[in-house]
Design brief:
Immunoglobulin-like, three-stranded antiparallel beta sheet, 41% strand
Amino acid sequence: MISTTQFCRFEPPTSIPGAEGDIAKVTLQDFRRLKILASVIISQPESFSLRNGHAHMYAKSKTQNFNVTIFDQNVRIRAIPVSYDWTYGDGTSRSLSFPGTHASNRGFDVPTTTSHVYKETGDFGVGLSTRFRGEFSTEGGPWTPIPGFANVPSEQVTMSVWRTKKILVAENCNQESSAPGCTSPFDN
């Protein structure tokens, strides 16, 4: 499913040298009908975070290419991701002009450019809509921008946010095995 949102109310006409002879044109409606793949939401660690910690999430997306025939002319179309609208399921949202990236060896206390801090525990539905701009080339000619954008929603993921509990322990578990933190959570 592709949702549409108009970015600019009045977009200027596009004039590209060398494209005057092309009879094949790709409209915004044509562009939005393409099967543009949604970005994939990635979280590290996978689908969980700690309350007041930095939940690291990023979008996995790429430029997509399509080949179509219009009036017996070969037309190449590119869908290029340009912005990412996040909703975090806790009433907050934000828009970014970049997808983020993998962040290895980081803890919940380390913020990233795409991390989010949850103030409460629970399960939250994280959503993402990626805005793609388009351009087309007829018979190998110059790339012509398609005025407007296609907004493609991603499949929502659930982020489970847990709480932590700190216990100060003065005993040595080797000497006092019943002290807090010394027994396995699986032992009764």
